[in-house]
Design goal:
With 602 residues, this protein is an alpha/beta fold. 61% of the residues lie in helices and 10% in strands. It has 3 domains: 113-334, Up-down Bundle (ABC transporter transmembrane region fold); 343-429 and 511-523 and 540-602, P-loop containing nucleotide triphosphate hydrolases (Rossmann fold); 437-508, 3-Layer(aba) Sandwich (Rossmann fold). It contains 22 helices and 10 strands. Helix 6 (183-226) packs parallel to helix 11. The longest helix has 54 residues, at 71-124. The radius of gyration is 36 Å and the shape is elongated. It starts with 17 loop residues before the first helix and ends in a 7-residue tail after the last helix.
């Protein structure tokens, strides 16, 4: 499947290929397609009549000179043609406005819809997908690639449609002037089409390389900014700048390569040759008295119309090639498979909180992390999972809420395999506070109430007080309306963790997972939060991952993980007496002679 969650199913677009995908979005705005086509045709038609009216005025003046009509008749005809030109161009201007207005609305809506769909798809992807995707490249696709789709339609598609009519109209009008005059426009059109086909073939692969290299450049930029503190702390600014410059140069080189292809565009030469051929052909017919001077002017005016498609197609085809390449990159994300599915028809119920691991094995890619893990957590029980760094403790918690699925074995919640639960129902009832706290660039109140759709200020403050966060929040000038920086960088580690605890209290989940959630809190604050956690744990299942003995002793059950396997389990006193692995975990926190006395030193 391509989505773990269906976050947005508004568009029902076709994902079988770039062209079907683009068309499925285009057809949703058919009214603007009609107005764009009508405006483009009208623009070409009204441009085509100008040389015809001009030619008739010249014929009238020529007839007057040859005394076949009176001066008054010639003046009337000329004045009528002037009015016709002015009137047609006023109408043309209005229709041109309608065309460009339609094209702008159309392209902006396409950009909005595709970006909305892509963002919904990203929200729906599982963590197995996001773990392997550079954030910068994803951002390039969501922003720049989607923007290229906008440019693909306006000016790209808009100019292609408009210029196509500027080719079609001379083919229609020229034979009416004289049937022989179809020759030059027809030959030019055939050769021009071949040039366009070759241009698209040459530009398309380069456009793909441009988009790919831009994504790599953006990935490096995002990574460097995310790790800017490490870059500065190791004095690597010069090296990072040099590497980034090499990526920028790659993007530049591909753009130059595309420019070289466009510089060899032959239609400009063809247009010049068509002008010469058209003038020669029309003058031959004029000298043979087959056509008159006004017909020559009208015909040359038709050939002049080819100038717009010649110059517009070079620019618009590049935009279309870039947009097509971007659509392909967007579809790569939308169609990327994820191992999880929402299982919207799965089991839904209020959690009691029983959790059972039955011979669970799991690994990231080909690296085994957990092997044959089995233990049981009873409803309302507090279980501590302990072990050395890298033993697989955090991975266990990610299997409970189906961030990942077990490779083999089963994880049961309330006796139901987590794969059989409705994923939304399961996750909404499991509160998870990880060691790496993530806070959004929003107000403190909004961060605390993130998982609560119907929150009020009183509840938020109550949750903050439970997490011992109320006092430091009130010390800020704007209190709960204080907007914190990205990922909470404007807060200390302890403040971030207390806000995360407040967020968990606010959602009031039946199952609470605390993954080393007090590691950045001082001892005095920890005592206060410990009481809050005790209160929060009442009546709910709580999973603790921690190295703090004060929390481990308090647990009803302790599971010791060593090298991805269950080394021992039981209560604190029993494990101290029976498990060497458990004793070794705390050897650096307590003297061996004091472990059996259960005295804590940190």
């Amino acid at each position: 499947m391509s989505s773990e969650f269906i976050a947005n199913n508004t568009y029902n677009s076709d994902h079988t290929g770039s062209i079907p995908f683009i068309w499925s979005h285009v057809r949703r705005h058919w009214i603007f397609i009609i107005t764009l086509l009508f405006g483009a045709f009208s623009n070409a038609a009204l441009a085509s009549v100008v040389p015809i009216f001009t030619g008739r005025a010249f014929n009238a003046l020529n007839d007057f000179q040859q005394t076949t009509i009176s001066g008054e008749q010639a003046l009337n005809i000329t004045f009528t043609m002037v009015l016709a030109v002015v009137g047609s161009q006023i109408v043309r201007a209005f229709l041109q406005f309608m065309r460009n207005f339609s094209a702008e609305i159309f392209s902006q809506r396409i950009e909005r819809d595709v970006r909305d769909e892509l963002y919904g798809s990203l929200l729906g992807k599982g963590m197995d997908f996001h773990d392997m995707q550079p954030v910068g490249d994803i951002m390039a696709r969501v922003t720049n690639d989607v923007r290229e789709l906008n440019f693909m339609f306006n000016p790209g598609f808009n100019l292609i449609v408009g210029s196509s009519f500027f080719i079609i109209l001379p083919l229609i009008v020229s034979p009416f002037i004289h049937p022989q005059l179809i020759l030059v426009p027809l030959v030019f059109t055939i050769l021009h089409i071949f040039v366009q086909i070759q241009l698209v073939r040459d530009v398309h692969p380069i456009a793909q390389k441009v988009r790919q290299s831009f994504g790599k450049m953006n990935s490096r930029l995002a990574e460097a900014l995310e790790g800017l503190q490490v870059v500065k702390g190791t004095a690597q600014e010069a090296n990072e700048a040099s590497y980034f410059q090499s990526l920028v140069n790659t993007v530049r080189d591909y753009y130059i390569e595309q420019g070289e292809i466009e510089a060899r565009y032959l239609s400009t030469v063809l247009w010049g040759l068509a002008f010469v051929a058209a003038l020669f052909h029309s003058m031959v017919l004029y000298n043979a008295n087959i056509i008159d001077i006004g017909d020559v002017i009208a015909f040359i005016g038709q050939i002049y119309m080819f100038g717009f498609p010649v110059f517009a197609s070079l620019f618009s085809l590049s935009r279309i090639a870039s947009g097509y390449a971007s659509a392909k990159r967007i579809l790569e994300i939308i169609n990327a498979e994820t191992t999880l599915d929402q299982n919207a028809t799965g089991h839904e119920a209020t959690l009691a909180g029983e959790i059972i691991f039955e011979n669970v094995t799991f690994g990231y890619q080909e690296r085994a992390v957990l092997r044959d893990v089995s233990f049981t957590v009873k409803p309302g029980q507090t279980v501590a999972i302990v072990g050395q760094t890298g033993a697989g403790k955090s991975t266990i918690t990610k299997l409970i809420n189906r961030t990942y699925d077990a490779t083999s074995g089963r994880v049961l919640v309330d006796g139901i395999d987590v794969r059989d639960w409705d994923l939304s129902s399961l996750r909404s009832q499991i509160g998870n506070i990880e060691q790496d706290i993530f806070l959004f660039s929003r107000s403190i109140a909004e961060n605390i109430a993130f998982a609560d759709d119907e929150w009020n200020q009183a509840d938020v403050e109550a949750s903050a007080k439970k997490a011992q966060a109320h006092d430091f929040i009130e010390s800020f000038p704007e209190g709960y309306e204080t907007v914190i920086g990205q990922r909470g960088v404007t807060l200390s580690g302890g403040q971030r963790q207390r806000l995360a605890l407040a967020r968990a209290f606010q959602s009031d989940p039946p199952v609470l997972i605390l993954d080393d959630s007090t590691s950045a809190i001082d001892s005095a604050t920890e005592d206060k939060i410990q009481k809050a956690i005790w209160t929060a744990a009442e009546g709910r299942t709580t999973i603790l991952i921690t190295h703090r003995l004060s929390q481990i002793r308090w647990a009803d059950h302790i599971v010791v993980i060593k090298n991805g396997e269950v080394a021992a389990q039981g209560n604190h006193d029993d494990l101290l007496n029976s498990s060497p692995a458990y004793r070794r975990i705390f050897a650096r926190y307590e003297e061996p002679t004091e472990i059996t006395q259960s005295s804590e030193t940190e």
